[in-house]
Design a protein that fits this description.
Blueprint: H1 13-16, E1 33-39, H2 51-61, E2 71-76, E3 82-87, H3 89-96, E4 101-106, E5 109-112, H4 117-120, H5 129-132, E6 140-145, E7 186-191, H6 194-198, H7 218-227, E8 231-236, E9 239-244, E10 252-257, E11 267-268, H8 269-282, E12 286-289, E13 291-292, H9 302-312, E14 316-320, E15 339-344, E16 348-356, E17 364-367, E18 375-383, H10 400-403, E19 407-410, H11 415-425, E20 429-433, E21 449-452, H12 454-466, E22 471-481, E23 488-489, E24 509-512, E25 516-519, E26 527-529, E27 532-534, E28 538-541, H13 544-561, H14 567-576, E29 589-590, E30 595-596, H15 599-602, H16 609-612, E31 617-618, H17 623-632, H18 637-644, E32 663-667, E33 672-683, E34 689-696, E35 701-706, E36 709-712, E37 718-728, E38 735-738, E39 741-752, E40 758-767
Parallel strand pairs: 6-10, 6-12, 7-10, 12-14, 14-15, 15-24, 18-19, 19-20, 20-21, 23-29, 32-40
Antiparallel strand pairs: 1-3, 1-4, 2-3, 5-11, 5-13, 8-9, 16-17, 16-22, 18-22, 25-28, 26-27, 29-30, 31-33, 33-37, 34-36, 34-39, 35-37, 38-39, 39-40
Bound molecules: 2-acetamido-2-deoxy-beta-D-glucopyranose (NAG) (11 copies).
Residues 387, 389-390 line the site of one 2-acetamido-2-deoxy-beta-D-glucopyranose.
């Protein structure tokens, strides 16, 4: 297929950016299936020099007269010990009897879930984290996604130093891709599709490239968001013009393509494990994944398994929290060794200005992404019934004869349906009165459409009813900076608690994820307009898929300043310094309700890069702490061996109370409870310091911190404290945090005495499921 193909059917962005749960399909008839086989590495028989030889010999020794030999897919060395293969039931039974075999799990399937963001995040060329981190110089960010469009200007390597010797990655050749597509910015690109192909998906015959080249545009977008080079004069059909730049513009990108464009399945667990295995072997410093698998236990889910191994090697792993919000318990990728990222809005909006009649009513703006610089002048306005109590623009309510050449006004209703009706009717365009709960994607604006607030909708309505003739002027393609309030937590952003381990608050943090401008694959139509599609080098998209690469970019900057910090220390710094106020100095709002967001929406808050560089103290977590946490989950010894990849793992102090920078109390069928937490803080600032605990707790939450003063000798000195939290729901002003969720929350902040550092953690209580 040709990469220049421009007018292909448009994929629904809406469905594409939702993160979904896919149930592993079962097959009638074909009994061969892909499996992930976990082995006890230490049981390798003496004659074998390598594990590869051992596994190959196992596979060749099992037989099934009906189907021949098993097919080997991948051998895994880092994310787990073992391999994946396609086996018949009889082959599986034979394999399970072999010495060294621990467990076998069937393949699972998963799916995916700027210019302006650096400035919104306060990143500045001259002060703060950007110059301190030398813009992320030499950090290597591994992105597991849909591939990359290497010709994008965001991956030009002007001014970058030679690739460091420690890098072991490669630029793999394949369809429309070869080694000359890599450079000093894009230093590695690989593709993993064996698992999907085993499902009978012929990647060369569907709309994708069997190579690291991106068909969707999604991986190009996430990579350039995290580490794109500056591109001047980037824009999206005239909106958001400016210099597009990644969060860590001097960091390097390695793409591991593990998501493909198929009708139903996008990603196979065998392929994702292989991608993460290779990323670890190649030497990435950080990883970002904007996709999710079913929420199986930690020893089955490929992302939690791979992230555990990455964490052990000091690799920071950031993942999207999913787009199933705003209900409670919708978090994905919530393992405590993953940094789980929700999505917030920015202070940039896309608008059209509306002037009614002769302008005696002050002109106002509404949201629009219509991609043409159109000026509609003195055009008649049409309002269905002229009766405010009837919802207008419902199916088949507009008569083409009435609306020809007119702008239709649609009162509050289902905008998606109303848009279809306006389009069907053949009207010139439309103004929709709507609230922010109806989230409109850019590609919905395929006609001259403007979405105005309910208040402004009333003005339009009153004007039309009072005026004859009623006319309107509309000017499209306005970009509004400094819109307020911002940020807000996006309505689609997944909310805590996390089903698998509710005692760890998730998400950890939010980062920009709404209408993000970044590089896109210009291989096909993107924005519908009339019956046509426009192609773009830069896409404007939304999702927690976009917030994870923002966060990993910030983590790369922090890591560049503090190369000795563990992933948990970096996350602690990001969480405890996050901000809780928006640009009106009010609390960050939840877009789905218009009321204050809570830690179940945003974890520690909204990422605040310059502060994260210097948090004062961190809550660190070591590998053994995570092992003890998993011990506390009462996994069997085999399950423990799989996750830790150790046959001699030890549970030194099994406990679900990790040294986490947040506190969560789950109420199980009770209205009052007491919980205890133990924490250790590490001083990461220079010199001695003293900190004092300050608790903010609502009625019904009693918090006691002992001791409430901590003295640190100097850098890297550590001090512990105990905290007890008593909840009495009968006494509390319960916050209805979500329609389906009740709880309350407070904060513990450690204030440096005579210093500037404040180390803040949320304390949340919530009813269990
Ligand atoms: C890679 O592809 C480009 C364009 O298709 C071609 O010009 C170049 O010679 C190829 N390089 C290698 C190393 O094959
Ligand atoms: C898959 O692709 C190969 C090579 O491109 C082709 O020979 C084969 O016929 C295709 N198979 C199917 C089922 O489409
Ligand atoms: C504008 O139109 C309104 C009615 O729609 C009318 O009352 C007003 O006098 C007009 N103003 C001008 C300056 O023509
Ligand atoms: C508006 O519509 C409602 C509901 O159909 C009806 O009861 C009412 O009489 C209408 N008002 C006018 C002014 O036509
Ligand atoms: C309008 O049409 C849409 C799609 O064609 C359909 O799903 C919806 O139920 C219809 N609504 C009404 C009120 O008939
Ligand atoms: C609008 O209606 C469509 C189906 O007609 C439905 O899928 C969608 O969820 C509705 N949107 C809202 C905001 O209710
Ligand atoms: C808009 O109407 C045109 C003409 O009827 C049709 O071809 C097109 O599919 C419609 N667009 C959408 C998004 O429904
Ligand atoms: C693990 O087992 C212990 C002892 O039986 C029990 O007290 C604890 O609640 C269990 N923990 C979980 C997470 O199931
Ligand atoms: C387990 O054994 C490996 C090598 O056999 C050793 O490197 C490791 O330190 C041991 N781990 C523990 C927790 O004893
Ligand atoms: C409630 O149940 C969860 C999950 O089983 C457990 O982790 C937590 O400790 C329990 N909370 C209380 C207060 O008992
Ligand atoms: C908890 O409080 C709610 C509301 O006051 C009450 O309906 C419920 O019965 C109480 N549950 C328990 C276990 O006491």
């Amino acid at each position: 297929m040709s990469p220049a193909m421009e007018l292909l059917p448009h994929l629904s962005l809406l469905s594409f950016f939702l993160a979904f749960l896919l149930v592993a399909p079962t097959y009638a008839g074909d009994e061969r299936q892909s499996y992930i086989i976990h082995m006890d590495k230490s049981a390798i028989p003496a004659p074998f020099a390598t594990h590869d030889h051992w596994y190959a010999s196992m596979l060749s020794s099992i037989s099934d007269s009906d189907v021949g030999s098993p097919t080997h897919l991948y051998t895994y060395n880092h994310v787990m010990h073992g391999f994946s293969a396609v086996l018949s039931p009889s082959q599986l039974a034979q394999l399970e009897r072999m010495p060294g075999h621990i467990a076998t799990y069937p393949e699972t399937y998963g799916q995916l879930h700027t210019t302006h963001t650096p400035r919104f995040l306060g990143l500045n060329r001259h002060v703060g984290l950007w110059p301190a981190a030398q813009f992320g110089d030499d950090m290597i960010i591994g992105i597991l996604d849909t591939g990359i469009w290497p010709e994008s200007e965001s991956f030009n390597d002007a001014g970058m130093s030679p690739v460091p010797d420690r890098w072991k990655g490669a630029c793999e050749a394949g369809t429309e891709f070869n080694s000359s597509n890599c450079n000093r910015k894009l230093i590695g690109a690989r593709s993993f599709s064996k698992g999907l192909k085993e499902r009978g998906l012929n990647i060369s015959t569907i709309d994708d490239y069997d190579s690291p080249r991106d068909y969707f545009g999604h991986g190009t977008h996430t990579s350039s968001t995290a580490a794109g080079s500056p591109v001047r004069n980037a824009d999206y059909f005239g909106y958001a013009q400016g210099t597009a730049i990644g969060i860590a513009p001097m960091a390097r990108v390695a793409m591991y393509k593990v998501v493909f464009n198929t009708d139903t399945i996008e990603s196979a667990s065998t392929d994702v494990l292989a991608g993460m295995d290779q990323a670890i072997a190649d030497g990435v410093d950080l990883m970002s994944l904007s996709l999710a698998f079913p929420e199986d236990p930690y020893y089955v889910n490929p992302i939690s398994l791979g992230a555990f191994a990455a964490m052990e090697r000091g690799i920071f792993v950031s993942c999207s929290a999913g787009n199933r919000g705003p209900q409670a318990y919708t978090i994905r990728n919530g393992a405590p060794w993953i940094t789980t990222v929700g999505a917030g809005t920015m202070d940039r909006d896309y608008a059209a200005s509306v002037t009614l009649g002769n302008g005696s009513i002050a002109p106002f703006q509404g949201r629009s992404f219509f991609p043409e610089s159109l000026y509609i002048s003195h055009t008649p306005l049409y309002y269905g019934h002229g009766n405010a109590s009837i919802e207008t623009c419902n199916n088949y309510t507009l008569d083409p004869k009435d609306v020809a050449g007119k702008i239709v006004f649609c009162s509050f209703g289902n905008v998606s349906n109303q848009m279809l009706e306006v389009n069907r009717s053949g009207a010139e365009g439309a103004i929709f009165a709507t609230d922010s709960a109806q989230f409109l994607y850019p590609d919905a604006f395929y006609m001259p459409f403007v979405a105005v607030s309910l208040e402004d909708g009333e003005k339009v309505k009153e004007y039309i009813v009072a005026s004859s003739p009623a006319t309107v002027d509309i000017k499209f393609q306005l970009t509004v900076l400094g819109s307020k309030p911002a940020p807000q937590v996006a309505h689609f952003s997944a909310r805590g608690p996390y089903r698998l381990t509710p005692g760890i608050l998730k998400p950890d943090i939010v980062a920009p994820g709404v209408n993000i401008l970044a590089a896109w694959a210009p291989n096909r139509g993107w924005q519908p307009i009339g019956n046509d599609y426009l192609v773009t080098d830069f896409g404007l998209v939304s999702g927690t898929s976009m917030s994870s690469p923002h966060l990993v970019g910030v983590a790369a900057l922090v890591r560049a300043v503090h190369p000795d910090w563990s992933p948990a220390a970096i996350r602690s710094a990001l969480m405890t310094t996050a901000f809780l106020m928006d640009n009106t100095h009010g609390p960050i709002l939840d877009m789905s309700t218009g009321t204050s967001a809570t830690p179940l929406d945003f974890g520690g808050g909204h990422v605040n890069p310059n502060k994260a560089m210097d948090p004062g103290l961190v809550y660190d977590i070591g590998v053994q702490d995570y092992v003890d946490f998993v011990c506390g989950l009462n996994y069997t010894s085999d399950q423990m061996k799989i996750l830790t990849r150790q046959s001699n793992y030890t549970c030194t102090k099994p406990s679900l109370d990790l040294n986490y920078p947040s506190f969560m109390v789950i109420l199980n069928n009770t209205n009052s409870t007491a919980s205890r937490f133990s924490r250790v803080l590490t001083n990461v600032a220079d010199g001695p310091s003293v900190y004092r605990a300050v608790v903010y707790a609502p009625a019904g939450m009693r918090v006691v911190v002992k001791p409430d003063t901590l003295k640190f000798e100097g850098k890297n000195s550590r001090q512990g404290f105990e905290m007890s939290v008593e909840i009495d729901m009968a006494k509390t002003d319960m916050v209805r945090i979500k329609s389906d969720y009740i709880g309350n929350y407070g904060y513990l902040s450690w204030y440096e005495v005579g210093g500037k550092h404040v180390v803040r953690s949320p304390i949340v209580s919530a009813y269990g499921q």
